[in-house]
Amino acid sequence: MYAIAIDGPAGAGKSTVSRIVAKEIGFLYVDTGALYRAVAYSVLQNKIEPTDSKAVCALLPHMEVRLGYEDGEQQVYLNKENVTDMLRTPRVSAAASAVSSFGPVREFLFSQQKDIARENNIIMDGRDIGTVVLPNAQVKIYLTATAEERAGRRFDELRQKGENIAFDTVLADIRKRDENDMNRKVSPLRQAPDAIVVDTSQMDFMQSVQAILEIIEKKIGQGIK
Fold first, then answer.
1. Confidence at residue 113, expressed as pLDDT on a 0 to 100 scale
2. Are 67 and 30 in contact, with CB atoms under 8 Å apart?
3. Per-residue pLDDT at 59 exceeds 60
């Protein structure tokens, strides 16, 4: 099986770019961040403080998180309920950054990620895919952009969904998530030594997609659909 690992900071466009690239080459797309968001959503629903590691980890045995696919689109199920549409709010994002720093949470989701990769040709994105989850991936990409550019994209996305939020609030959230992700003790955000950096600060969406496709073609060819 082929594995393509795409890592990078929050708001770099990993999910949207990876989803389109996966369709282009006929691979299964796995958004690992959505798994952590589901855990965070459950934590918030149970009125637990996301930074309370003891309470968060105590909730894990009562939680079932799994991925499903409908018409090729990833769906996230929490205790058999489809929660996909509830996972992209700033509150859930901030909580996901907190709970993902806990080793037991990462272990809770790790085996599911490995199982999917073992059984499918995949594109998997996250923070530690190329460094921890899929260290032997044939293609590793570190997708990034400036904090201001990433905040602008997230701001536009939230406004289109009807969220009334200030740009400065989104930028502060992006910077805080970067700090948390890069400095956590367990599986911090790092560029794998053999990863190819793609900075999309000056690229539009389709240029970003094309850049990734060109890297994949050079690494493993296109006859894989």
1. 85
2. yes
3. yes
In the structure encoding, which two tokens stand for residue 171, read together?
Answer: 């930028």
Concatenating the DSSP letter of every residue in the chain gives --EEEEE--TTSSHHHHHHHHHHHHTPEEEEHHHHHHHHHHHHHHTT--TT-HHHHHHHGGG--EEEEEETTEEEEEETTEE-GGGS-SHHHHHHHHHHTTSHHHHHHHHHHHHHHHHHS-EEEEESSIIIII-TT-SEEEEEE--HHHHHHHHHHHHHHTT----HHHHHHHHHHHHHHHHH-SSS-----TTPEEEE-TT--HHHHHHHHHHHHHHHH-STT-
Residue 28: phi and psi, rounded to 5, are -85, 135
Whether pTM exceeds 0.85: no
4 and 44 Cβ atoms separated by less than 8 Å: no
Q: Report how far residue 119's alpha carbon sits from residue 146's, in angstroms, rounded to the nearest whole number.
A: 35
Task: Specify the range with the lowest mean pLDDT, choosing from 43-52, 104-113, 170-179, 208-217.
Answer: 104-113
